[in-house]
Amino acid sequence: MPLYLLLGFSAGLPFYMFNAVLLLRLSRNGIDIVVIGFFAWVALLPTFKFLWAPIVDRLSVPGFAAFWGRRRGWIMLSQLGIFASLVAMAFTADDTNLPLVALFAIVLAFWTTTLEVAADGWRIELAPSQAEQGPIVAANLWGYRSAMVAAGSGAALLAARAAWTWAYLAIAALAFLPFPVLAAMRADPGASAGRLRSLAVGVVATAAILVTTAALTALVGWVVLSAFASAGITSESNITPYVLVACLLPFLALAFALPKIRRMGPDAPWRTSPAIGPYVDIFWRYGFATLLVLGFVSLYRVGDVLALTLSHPMWDERGYSLDQIGIADGAVALPASMLGVAIGGWIAAKWRLGWALALGAVVAALGNWVYVWLWQSEPEGWILYASVAADQFGNGMAGAVFVVYLSMLVNPRFPSAQYAFLSGFAFLLARLLAGASGDMQQSFGYDGFFLLAGGASLSAVLLLPLLARVIPRGHSAGPERPV
């Protein structure tokens, strides 16, 4: 439990720094709200973590894995990547070179996501049942949300007194703290080298990997931006529909292949392939009900993602100070979120998952809608604090239940890859819409935007009666009866 509290903390710190804190920073530096919305697309990267999750399952990090094993090796590599990316973002904190800011934000998102992939695969291996998942998920989310609050509140308070550069450097130092803890842990049972040698080789290999990753990211970004420019697409173009279609094409292809997938035997090449076998297995086990499952998971967290995208710019525009925002993100959000996670983890372990999911969606929607009241009220501290408490409580409860549900869908033969696929798809629609949040806000205002956010999350409840009939065939980590 302390281990997963620590791993959650490691992943939560950087997430806020390329998401909510970055959007607040851009707002304070005078960047247009539409461009700020585009930066929300950085959070799309975790949606596609299934593309490299099989690598985390099968390959080992040179050096680190020789002493600490494959899972911890990837976690240590990711933490070094997170530290380097945060330092780079610190020295571009004036936001005068937005392409460079975007590059470092994307690299930070990549290493944050890789850390989550390795930790999630390990968690599912360690706790394969629903009863075991509830407490360990709660511990992981306590660490994750504590770190998000520390990042959001700490960065805002530091920026109010110094500058955004110092805020990012402080969070980088804090994000690095778990690394020596992991380095001091005992060896993996299959260790083939000593601690110091493994550490030295691992650091050298990490430096090469980080430079290569940043260079490839820059190259891909240049190619994509050049292609957009050649097609006449500018910052004023609405590319959301095109991005949505491009992202959905692989999933639509699998959906059309469902009849063939269902007839496949255990030795079929698609099912045994290291690259696509884990994902084909999901469609094989759930059949056409896979489409229902994917539809449900893509709707369940839409409201929370949209609310997170524009909540901080909205507080800034409404006239709240960085000190007030820092208190809201810290002293208020942390206990409210922890209480929500605790209750969500408890009901996920004790209740039928269908009822737990329904309650989580209702409470999360109420938390999104409370921002309508905030926007229409005079800017007073207690209104901000009450709104954030309600939002974070609902977010924490729904998040804990949802993680348990996704974990129960996973085949324990492919824990990292399948959880990466499902959790990534769960946020695909939400993060695509988040990129257009600036346009939406300009169309119908902040109050209309947050009404839409809460309604989107609540709509997932309509699918629960159908979802309760879904039972996978073959070996699954899920319950033998409907949720």
TrEMBL record:
Subcellular location: Membrane
Primary location class: membrane
SUPFAM superfamilies the record matches: MFS general substrate transporter (SSF103473)
Keywords, alphabetical: Membrane, Transmembrane, Transmembrane helix, Transport
GO cellular component: a single term: membrane
Membrane topology: Multi-pass membrane protein
Transmembrane segments: 6-26, 33-53, 73-93, 100-119, 166-187, 199-229, 241-261, 282-302, 322-348, 355-376, 382-407, 419-437, 449-471
Name of the protein: Permease
Organism of origin: Qipengyuania oceanensis
